[in-house]
Amino acid sequence: MTSRSSLLVDIGSTYVKVAVLRSDENIDAETKFQFPPFLSLAGPYRTVDPAVVLDVVEGAIASVLPEADNPDRILLSGQMHGWTLTDRHNEPQLPLATFGDNRALRPDNGTSRLDELRNALPSQTWLATGNELRSGLPVAGIYATDLSAFDGPLRVHSLLSWVAASLTGKPAFVQHTTDAAASGMFDLHAGSWCEQATTLVGGNARLELPRVSSTPEVVGKHRTSGATVFTPIGDQQAALLGAGLRHGVTAFNISTGGQVARLAETHAEDRCQTRPYFDGLLLHTVTHLPAGRALTHGVELLSRLQGDDAWAWAMQAAAEPVNHSLPQAHPTFHDQNGGGWSGITDAHTAEDLLRALVSAIAAPYVDSAPNVGFSPTDQLLFCGGVAQRFTPLPTAIQSALDRPATVAPDGDMALRGLAVVANRL
Fold first, then answer.
1. Which UniProt keywords apply (predicted)?
2. DSSP states of 236-257
3. Parallel, antiparallel or unpaired: strands 379-383 and 249-254
4. Whether the Cβ atoms of residue 78 and residue 159 lie closer than 8 Å to each other
5. 6-235 and 245-407 share one fold
6. What's residue 1's pLDDT?
7. Residues in the chain with pLDDT < 70?
8. Burial of 392 by CB count in 10 Å (0-12 exposed, 13-18 middle, 19+ buried)?
9. What is the mean pLDDT of the chain?
10. Coil, strand, or helix at residue 92?
């Protein structure tokens, strides 16, 4: 139990959320602020201004300081796979890249930098990092960046580690394992940076990597409040901790994006992604599943005559039983290749299209469950805003898996997870 209050901050891709954890373990003053917009939506880059990100985080903290009564600690979680390169004073040398950055897909002499990176090392090396090698990972983005344009040594920071360092005066250069592993350069078997990957990406060995800790460590003191800032943790792990993930449970985190996850003690190898969790445990997980983005855009397209009642209409339509064949839905509206429906006949209604969309979004969650180790004796756990507010989707998944299910209570699960971490310190 904390002796005084703590501040909880989650840096998401849509909002920066903040709350106060009281000494009685209650969470108060929860509020949110818009995450800064991308500097450009054209081309492969998806970056944000570091100074603007820091201003939003500092503003969020300042908004709850009057409620916090001299807080002891600041704990952070947030979006993984963001990165920047800084000098030894933690001054960014380029904008913060987000998980949507695709600079590694640019062609270079007939092949992309991502394919060049993938082919440069054995597949087992990449497998050991736990991530599927893709363009949004820091390892790919850094490899696709011309490091010769910068002078002197370059520190590799995640979005989260840079924010934590910038909140303090004399920060320690350290990351939590959940944050470090999101880089695509951390060997989960060895529990250390993958030397082959870091040498390949760094080229002339100018890159400096932080020390990695499996437990929360002190980064420094917050300049304004004097509170101790701890190493941030990944938002997926924080949300699942806050939702109450335990052994024998398959969890479905359905929010803006979607994941399926289950606790494990060994690496999943090539069945799915492996990520560090807490207390020496690992997560077996499948990520990047269709979720809030696809559902929201689909509802907007189908409910234009419903006005403010769009989601009430969608809830009712999705809950009605299906007594005839449905068209095929392709719920990738947020993808550059688009999405939609096929096989529509005169007999189909807008409600049918909505039901087809829900079924199509649910299907990859059901299909992914065995890959993370789902057992026929498992319980199901649903968390995330979409799962909490749009019940037809978790109902469709539960119906297909035929297991008892619980839905995490309202409230931000990442902030709840940070509260659990704070109470363990």
1. Carbohydrate metabolism, Kinase, Transferase, Xylose metabolism
2. HHHHHHHHT--TTEEEEEESSS
3. parallel
4. yes
5. yes
6. 40
7. 1-3, 204-205, 305-307, 334-336
8. buried
9. 93
10. strand
153, 82 Cβ separation under 8 angstroms: no
State the Cα–Cα distance between residues 241 and 340, nearest whole angstrom: 35
| Distance, CA of 419 to CA of 413 (rounded, Å) | 10
- Specify the pTM: 0.92
Phi and psi angles of residue 94, each rounded to the nearest 5 degrees, phi first? -160, 165
User: Given this model, what pLDDT does residue 2 score?
Assistant: 41
pLDDT at 205: 64
Which phi and psi (to 5°) does residue 313 adopt? -60, -45
DSSP 93: S
245-407 is classed CATH 3.30.300.130: no
* Residue 60 near residue 101, CB atoms below 8 Å: no
Determine the pLDDT at residue 257. Answer: 85
| Tokens linked to 309 | 């009642």
Q: How far is CA 88 from CA 162, 189, 193, in A?
A: 12, 29, 19
Q: Residue 293: what pLDDT?
A: 86
Q: What is the pLDDT of residue 306?
A: 67
Rounded to whole angstroms, the Cα distance separating 425 from 416 reads: 15
d(Cα 416, Cα 260) in Å, to the nearest integer? Answer: 19
Q: What is the DSSP string of 103-149?
A: GGGSEETTEEHHHHHHHHS-HHHHHHTSS---TTSHHHHHHTS-GGG
Q: Return the domain boundaries, the chain.
A: 6-235, 245-407
> What letter represents residue 80's amino acid?
M
CA distance 292 to 313: 17
Using CA atoms, how far apart are residues 112 and 255, in angstroms rounded to an integer?
31
Helices 392-401, 350-368: axis angle to 10 degrees equals: 50
Cα–Cα distance, 387 to 110 (Å, whole number): 43
Neighbours of 124 (CB within 10 A): 10
Do 417 and 239 contact (CB within 8 A), yes or no? yes
Is the distance from CB of 364 to CB of 294 less than 8 angstroms? Answer: no
List C-alpha distances in Å: 294 to 20, 44, 333, 352, 414: 32, 21, 5, 16, 22
